[in-house]
Amino acid sequence: MTDLFVRRWMTDQQRAGYSLCLILDPEHENDICQSLLNASPIEQYLSVYEGTAITDLANAGPFIFTLDQPGDRRIDGLLEHPQRNWGWLASLPKGDLPNLAKHWRERLLIGPRAHQALYRFHDNRVLARALEQLPADALPAYLGPVISVCCWDGAGWKITDNPAPGTYPVPNEPLWLRTSTCAWQAMQIRLINAHRYLLAEHVKAYADLAGQHDPDAWIRDRLTQADAWGWHAPEQVEFLLVQSLQAPAYTLEAYWQARADETPARHFERVYSLQGFGKRQTSL
């Protein structure tokens, strides 16, 4: 059983004197997350989004729990089903839980201030891709106080040791933001970020949509349409999502379709203007 591999790693880390911690995405593991929250002393867990610019998403965002024992039965369901992509495991120096939360809080938001996105460090697929591609000398700034990571990469459990655990500033050009991502993984990240944006900024309209459509399928269709039109900039995708959400019967008017002689930029400017927002400043 693959979970025996993880239990052995957990035992080795505890015997070395380190704390064990679980980085958990509660989005699809809410029951397990609530069980851990109810059974854990307050000093043994943290919400990573708490106290940040996205603190309103604190309950939906990742939690970090410290685990007392390698044989903790509360996480059996997670270890037996790693394909649910619930997060990952790490070892830390004793008492370093607050430092780990601070480390990832400093790396949460990426991109220009006006168009920031969330870096999904808690997604084991994102972490595994970065760990696979980063050179060894970039690992300390990426993993911070983490001593060792045990992570499901889609095919099996992988262990990565941090060569120099500690406290590091965020590099000006983080290498982990340059790692390549498969198309499916990239779409999953975009879906989750779009979902959280609509939940935070347009919750009533989004709830109304969910009463008539599968939100994941609806967002996927919008993102696919944005790709087909060549609308890749964050403001273009945001515009398409919000206007589609507000359109009668969630159906855009015919003038939204691209013309044969239009570049993606001119197409966007035309639709933006026809939607009543006026002419945007453009270098075209």
From TrEMBL:
<protein>
    <submittedName>
        <fullName>DUF4123 domain-containing protein</fullName>
    </submittedName>
</protein>
<dbReference type="InterPro" id="IPR025391">
    <property type="entry name" value="DUF4123"/>
</dbReference>
<feature type="domain" description="DUF4123">
    <location>
        <begin position="22"/>
        <end position="138"/>
    </location>
</feature>
<dbReference type="Pfam" id="PF13503">
    <property type="entry name" value="DUF4123"/>
</dbReference>
